[in-house]
């Protein structure tokens, strides 16, 4: 009879645990995130079908699917301050390359952005892949075929389904085509110039080594001159009044109690070396 209560509690514990686990197993609600609308298509009369950041810039590229027009916009902090700048597309659906403002796309589904800021368009209804660069719009794949298919090979003769998306893969310098309609992932190797960053940021970094080199040279020069004049300066300082103030202002605490010229010159050299 003593076993009955413990069995009861065991079953109760089992039921409680299973109830607890059934709640826990479904969802794990991680707190700490916030949702904010930053682009409101109602205000701007667009439907932002796809959006991506441009590399090394604070700009976004936004696609309005219905008109096939691409816009750029500074990364918005609130939906009130969005200003769309037309990037490419004349607003009519079609298949036309050339100048950014007069190019036409036909139901562009999504796009990818390379390191240079070129935009590759999955131009769904044209079964083609288009490229928007600063010099205009071109067709890089599916240009000849313009029909549905799954043919690989030279890109202009290749065919795609009417449902595919693009992803840029920097490590491979390639586009991947998630070709839903064909149940395939396909790869288009890009030109190496499309995968080199030609951004103001990298130019800034490129300039930095010269600046650092200049600083390093001035440090080395300072130390070299200091050592070179040391033998000539020290005897004079010794023979002169030892209470003379050092010629150069020292910011180090140790320099404040320097009473002799020898120590101040040495600490000057130390200071010069440390600041290098
Ligand atoms: C690609 O298509 C063009 C135009 O139809 C054709 O002239 C060319 O021979 C094709 N090339 C290949 C490799 O199929």
TrEMBL record:
<feature type="signal peptide">
    <location>
        <begin position="1"/>
        <end position="25"/>
    </location>
</feature>
<keyword id="KW-0732">Signal</keyword>
<dbReference type="InterPro" id="IPR011042">
    <property type="entry name" value="6-blade_b-propeller_TolB-like"/>
</dbReference>
<keyword id="KW-0812">Transmembrane</keyword>
<keyword id="KW-0472">Membrane</keyword>
<feature type="transmembrane region" description="Helical">
    <location>
        <begin position="210"/>
        <end position="229"/>
    </location>
</feature>
<protein>
    <recommendedName>
        <fullName>NHL repeat-containing protein</fullName>
    </recommendedName>
</protein>
<keyword id="KW-1133">Transmembrane helix</keyword>
């Amino acid at each position: 009879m003593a076993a009955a209560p413990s069995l009861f509690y065991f079953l109760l514990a089992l039921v409680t645990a299973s109830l607890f686990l059934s709640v826990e197993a479904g969802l794990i609600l991680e707190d700490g995130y916030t949702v904010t609308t930053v682009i409101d298509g109602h205000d701007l009369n667009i439907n932002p079908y796809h959006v991506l950041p441009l590399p090394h810039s604070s700009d976004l590229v936004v696609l309005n699917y219905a008109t096939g027009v691409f816009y750029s916009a500074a990364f918005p902090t609130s939906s009130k301050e969005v200003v769309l700048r037309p990037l490419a597309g004349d607003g009519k659906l079609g298949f036309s390359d050339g100048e950014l403002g007069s190019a036409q796309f036909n139901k562009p589904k999504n796009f990818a952005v390379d390191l240079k800021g070129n935009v590759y368009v999955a131009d769904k209804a044209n079964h083609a892949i288009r490229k928007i660069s600063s010099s205009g719009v071109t067709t890089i794949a599916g240009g000849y075929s313009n029909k549905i298919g799954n043919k690989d090979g030279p890109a202009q003769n290749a065919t795609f389904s009417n449902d595919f998306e693009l992803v840029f893969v920097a490590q491979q310098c390639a586009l991947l085509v998630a070709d839903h309609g064909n149940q395939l992932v396909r790869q288009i190797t890009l030109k190496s110039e499309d995968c080199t960053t030609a951004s103001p940021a990298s130019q800034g970094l490129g300039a930095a080594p010269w600046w650092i080199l200049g600083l390093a040279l001035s440090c080395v020069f300072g130390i070299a001159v200091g050592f070179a004049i040391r033998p000539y300066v020290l005897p004079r300082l010794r023979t002169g009044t030892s209470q003379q103030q050092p010629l150069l202002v020292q910011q180090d605490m140790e320099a404040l109690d320097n009473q002799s010229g020898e120590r101040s010159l040495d600490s000057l050299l130390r200071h010069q070396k440390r600041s290098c």
